[in-house]
Each structure stands twice: as structure tokens, then as C-alpha cells.
Write a structure and sequence with these properties.
The protein has 198 residues and is mainly beta. Among the domains are: 57 residues, no CATH class; 62 residues, no CATH class. It has no helices and 14 strands. It has a 4-stranded antiparallel beta sheet with strand order 1-6-3-4, with no helix packed on it. Strands 8-13-10-11 form a 4-stranded antiparallel beta sheet, with no helix packed on it. Strands 5-2-7 form a 3-stranded antiparallel beta sheet, with no helix packed on it. Strand 10 and strand 11 form a beta hairpin. The termini are far apart.
Length: 198
Amino acid sequence: MLQQPAVPASTVAYANASGQTAYVSVIGGTVTSINVNTVQVATATNYIAAVPAGQTIAVTYSVVPVWYWSVFTPAIPASTVAVANPTGQDITVVLAAGTVTHVTISGPSISPTDRATSSPANVMLPAGGSISLTYSVAPVWAWLNFFNLDLIDSLGTVSADTNLVAATGVSGYSEANALPYAVHPTGGMPGFATGVSN
């Protein structure tokens, strides 16, 4: 999962330090230029820029856009053409701009179903599923994996080597991960899980 950085000030370059190519979907705002490594790739918003590892992206704007960083986002297919989700995980598809009349999801144990009839929209795309868009003006999208539970710790935050809570005390105890109340004795409390009658 890529970190979603804040949009920097207009014209300020932001480096892709993720170690992999990032697909940056720039949506909304009033944008006049999108540059990847100082090369202009677009002159307006609602664009997906491929930013290779170690390179930079800079957006020139008068009204700040939003952007989404992803390693999964494919190019928008032709209208009605399905694109499969080969990632092995459920994906949130953020859809914006364009003129869209149908967003159809199909997949394992899901028959083709319209999940949205316009843009903007957010839809869930299951692992192994596919998505097709019916449109007259192509939208822009971002494929995000916000809910990758493999990376969520017991506090509900994303765990990474750089943001782990340091262990303190004996045997690696950390007060941030301690329970607020004492654990029940083994076997539970008397009277629970036994037959109770009125």
C-alpha cells in the first residue's frame, strides 16, 4: 500500500520514494500542468500520471486538486470493456469526471451488477473480479487497497517498520498495546455460558 501524501504547493516537485512505479490520479481543482521529472505530461486535471521510482511529479494549479497514489491503477479501458482485478485483494475504485452511465462489477460469486450510474463514485472490486464502464466521455480512476488487513495492527493503524510503537518495560511490554481492563480468569465468569432459565 502506498502512502497517500498531501498535495504539495503548486509547482513543487514531490519525489516517489516508494521503490516502485506509482500511478498518480490527479482529480479536480484547476490544473494547468502536470510534470513528471520536469517533463510535461498533461495540461489539465483528471489525468493518471505514471511516476517511476525515484522520479518526481509536480502539479501547477490555481485551485488545489486531489490526488491518489497507487501501484495498481490500470489505464481506463474503452467503454464497456471489462478490466480484471489481478491483485489478489479487494480494491476500492475511486471514479471521477467523465460522463459515465454504468459501472458494472462482476466476479467470484457475483453476477454482473451495476454499482453506480454516474461519476463520481466509489465502488468495491473484489479480488478476481472485473469492472467495466459505460461512458461517452472517459473518466479518470484510482485503484486503492485501503483495507489491506494484513497491514493493520491491533490499534487499527497501518503497521510499518518506521511507525511501530517502541517496546518499553519487561519482556517488550508497551502501554499502547495494553488492555484497559484486567483479563477475565481462565474459564470466564461464573454463570456465563451455562444454562440459564427464567
